[in-house]
Each structure stands twice: as structure tokens, then as C-alpha cells.
């Protein structure tokens, strides 16, 4: 390796900041052609700009870019800049590299800087990464936190040629002409997150309040846990840096004032994303939730807060979330409940029992509950995966989010040593929504993102992996969100695990429409996976139009869940009823010969079919009706009060049959239109919608027309628990 040339370390005084004449652009790009794939406002790169402004006097304001089209126009009309930085994540790696390669080829004097978590941990793998993906496109890669290192880099580049910078700036890696990688260790972590001024309060985010992007904030950074599949599981991120309460308050109110008119006119999703890894686990989060509640009162925003809640400190998490009832779902992100698997992924400092307690106490806090499970973790097997699912549904989680194991370059799991030790067999696939074609400087850029997923571990052959995926789909379609909530009440009242019901649903005969959907799901599961990354990348870029059109590259669980409840809803409701009756019959409950129990099960399945009918129609659909022999709304309410112990159908039978009407309100139509306008009406678009909106906001509401001798239902009752 060539000897490093030591450059003077910039000394920045408070009273005399050095003047920087460089023009600087920062791009946090997202795909836009099928949908906006990463809908977050670019507050992270905005923080790079605001932090730099505290260390230097910038002669030219830093320009920020989110959309590739805007960057292409700027390059044509205003470029090139002296320095352009790109965020580098799994969802925009190739897109950023495509623009970087173009800029470097057309404007070789422009310095290109990358930064983000999509970068290996070890020097040998970093060197390979540079030679395989970055060489000729990127001048510097910032490892670790970016604010301080990027500022140091700007100060140095203002006075020195970039070729003189050889490993002298902490965290700034660069490849020399001789092929040697200069990789100095990163700068120490920022101790106080408020040392990064808010890009919202600085006005840098104003242009991104366009109704398409979701406001994004970070109140603390870092994670005390060591999960090997996560980039923040490394020692570097073990310390948690926090933001001052005043800055959080000012940011949230600033955002709320700008979101209010957009929300009132239905021009934006009524959401906030908090990127903390363990929200609610720290005392300061209590105040953040109080401010969010304040914003809800003043601005009608945010209705939904997307955040990962803390893995420990049950009482703190519950107390914080209770201040914004219904806005935050509490997560029990267990990933697996098998002790051997948990040891393999270094989650020994997370008490899974306590983690489940946090989420399952959410009903008292007025919040939903969900858990996360990853398939094909080190040490996993079919029995272990299905056992984890069983424990979680038996515990009563509203929803399970089931993921394939993705190997992230910045994680311990992605290292060669870890792969070898745990026998990970991986394949490549195209990431959903992350592909597109863009024109810049008279050239066409065709790009797609790939991720590496584990499909086989020593105790889980590929065929078992496929069977687990089918069960994941059935669970997502029949169980999640209470799709057949009344059937779940019946099953649980008889001490039958919902997983037993789902097992029958997987093995019983099915109607032709549902059979077709499930067979195509299995076939596409196989077709999406490739052995060779380069071959898949070539194929994907040659077939971009088919990916954008939705014929290839979809998120299969989202897409096929949508197809099940839209194309095969009658078959699905029939299967759900028959599986429930089979499970009851197995434990000796009489369900034949026109029994009341069979009538209750059949009516319940039909009830949920009608609730879900025409779920993605934005025009006012016709009112649907059903004869009501049983008071299903009271059955659901009694279950919520934990009053259903041993279910007797006679206790919920109407004296005389009434009539239910299933209607879609104007408010629901408006909510549905807002989301479908952004995601589209294709199965993959509607499937993604189901991950962003709560079902009660878009499915039909139920109104009772009483029969003779039946009292009218009180106003406001009858909405299904979904």
C-alpha cells in the first residue's frame, strides 16, 4: 500500500468558520415509476447539510434531491456540482450507482461521495465491494455516521485535490489508483443528536411536503442490542444518542402545521415515521408522545405513527404509547421464539417473554399489536418456524409480519465467516418496487435493486422453506388484522389454536379460484430466486418494463394476499368456515345436521366475506345485505371484554332474524382513494396499501336493520373488528 499523505486536520473555531466555495448536492434517491418505493422525506441527508453549516460558512446552499427526475433536470440545467453525495441503502444502491457512474463519466472533476449502511464490515470484503461495484463511480465512501466525516471531507476538499486524500479522514474510505483501499476507522459517534440541527426547522424539507412523501424524524440513534442480521447490531451503534426534547417538539409542530392543509384536503397520507430502533423504551419518549398527542389535537395529524417500539422496559413503552391511543401499534418483534435460533442471532440480551408482554398489554393502551418473524434464520427449521407462529397467534397478536431473511452488507450475518459457520445458502431476487428507467444527460439509465435472501439452512431444506412460505401467506390472508375475527373467537372459546385452523386450511380441498392463486404463488416463489447476482441484474435491467408493469418482481405475500381477498374471496370464506368446522369436529363439538354451531360458523364466514367485498373499489359500491340470526357484533365485543369462555351459540342468537347492511362510508371512500392514487389498483399496489392502512378504515361498516322483536342497534355500533 502506498504511504498515506497526512493532511492537516481542519480546526474549526466558533467565531471564525472557514468559508467553503464548493457547490454541494446531496441525493437520497427513490424509485418512482411503479410507485414511490422509499416514501420518506430526505431528513437524513438534510442533517448532513445542517451539520456542515455549523462547521463552515457555505458560499452556496446545499441542494437536496429525492426524485431521480429532479436530479436529472438539475444536472442538465445547473450541473455539475463540485461534490455530490448519495445515500446508499439496499433500496437505492443501483440507482445511486447509475447516476454516480454517469456523473463521473461526464464530469470527472466532480467528487462523488457515498454513505449509508449498504457497506461491508470487514476490510477484505470492503475491498472486494469497491472493486466489484464502486470502482470508477465513487471517490469516497463514508463508513458509520456521516455528519462529522462528511463535513471533514468538505473542509479538506476545499483546500486539497482529492487524489491527495489517502486514508487521512476518519471514516472516509477511498480506493487509490494502485488498487489499494484506504479505510481509516470511523469517527467516534455523535454524543448528542441535537448537535445536528433540524433540517425541518432550517426549511430544507419544505419542498418535500408534496403529499407523496411521509414526514420522517429521528429522536434517538443507536441500539443496545446485538442482533446479527441488523446493521445497528454492531458494536459501533451500541451507544444511544438522544435529541433534546425542545428540538423534537419544534420539529413535530413545524411538520404538523405543514401537514394540516394536506390532510384536510385528502392530499396526503396522515402518517409520521419515527426511525428510532426502540421507541418508548427511554424516559424522553414519554414527552415525545405527549407532543404527538398535542399535534393530533392542533393539526389532525398524525393519525398513524409508524415506529418500532422498544424491546425492553414494558411499563415505559406502554405509558408512552397510551398518550396517543390507536396511533402506534406495539411490536413484539421476536423474529423467532426458539432458544437455539435466538442464540445464533445474538438476541440473548432480549427477553422474548417480556417483549411479548409489551405488545400484548397494548389493548389497555388502545393500540394494536403485531409481531415480526423471520424465516430461515441460522438454526431454523420448519418445525421451529411454525412453532413460533403458533406461540404468537396463541398469545393473541393481531398481526404477524413475516419476512424472509435478507443479508445486509453492513451486518455481522453478511460476513463470510458467519455464513460459513451457520451454513447459510442464499439466492438473489429483485426487490419489489425498486426498479425503473430514467433519462439524464441524454442517456437512459435502467436500474433495479437486488437483495440476497437465505433459503436454506442445515435443518431447513428448500422444500420446507416453500411450505413455510405457503403457511405465511395463509396466515397473512386469513388471520392478520382479524380477517375472520368471529371465527377466531369461536376457535379460541373452544381452546383451539388458530394455527390448527390454518393447518386445516392448508390441507383441505379448495375451490378452483383459490387453488389457482396458491399454485401461482408457489410457482412465483421459485421463479423469483436466482443463483447468480450478475445474471439476475442483467435480466432485470433488460426487462424493466415488465417489472414496472407489475408482471414481475412483486412482494409475493402482499400481492397474493390481495389476490386471495379480491379474486378468490368466496372460496376463501368457504375454506375458512370448513376449516373451522373441521377443527371443532376434531375436539368433539357437534357441527353437523344443521346445528346452531354450524349455522354460527357459516354466518360468521359470510359476514366477513361481505365486509371485505369490493374492498378496492373507490366508487360507491352497492349496499350488501345478510340475514342475521346471530348478534356477531356482540360476540366480538364480549370477546374483547374477555367474557366468552365456553361459547354457547344460543347466548348470541337473535329472538328473530334481522338484516345486516354492509356499506362503505364517504370517509372510507376518501381514505381508500388517497392510498390507491399513490399505490395504484394493481394487486401489488393494493397489497402494499394493506400494509399502510388499517382495515376498519377501508372495509364496509355494518348496520343492523332489526327484525320483529329485536331492538335497534345503538348508533355507532356494528363496525366489525378487523
Question: Describe it for me?
Answer:
- It is built from 24 helices and 22 strands.
- It is α/β, with parallel strands linked by helices and 722 residues long.
- Helix 19 crosses helix 24.
- The longest helix is centred in the middle third of the chain and has 20 residues.
What is the gist of this entry?
This protein is α/β, with parallel strands linked by helices. Helices cover 40% and strands 16% of the residues.
Task: List the keywords.
722 residues; alpha/beta; 24 helices
- Supply the helix-strand structural class: alpha/beta
Biggest sheet overview: 7 strands, mixed
Mean of pLDDT: 89
Total number of helical segments? 24
Helix content: 25-40%
Number of strands: 22
Rg to the nearest angstrom?
27 Å
Widest sheet, order of strands: 4-2-5-6-7-8-9
Shape: globular
Estimate what percentage of residues fall within beta strands. 15-25%
Stretches with pLDDT under 50, minimum 5 residues: 1-15, 708-722
Terminus-to-terminus distance = 62 Å
Topology:
Layout: E1 19-20, E2 24-27, H1 43-55, E3 57-58, E4 63-65, H2 68-77, E5 83-87, H3 93-106, E6 111-115, H4 123-134, E7 140-142, H5 147-157, E8 172-175, E9 181-182, E10 216-217, E11 220-221, E12 241-242, H6 245-264, E13 271-274, H7 284-299, E14 304-306, H8 314-321, E15 330-335, H9 339-344, H10 352-360, E16 369-375, H11 382-395, E17 399-404, H12 416-422, E18 425-440, E19 443-456, H13 462-479, H14 485-493, H15 498-507, H16 512-527, H17 533-542, H18 544-548, H19 556-567, H20 569-586, H21 596-612, E20 624-630, H22 632-640, E21 653-663, H23 666-679, H24 683-692, E22 701-705
Parallel strand pairs: 1-3, 2-4, 2-5, 5-6, 6-7, 10-13, 13-14, 15-16, 16-17
Antiparallel strand pairs: 7-8, 8-9, 11-12, 18-19, 20-21, 21-22
Helix pairs in contact: 1-5, 6-7, 7-8, 8-10, 13-15, 13-19, 14-21, 15-20, 16-19, 19-24, 20-21
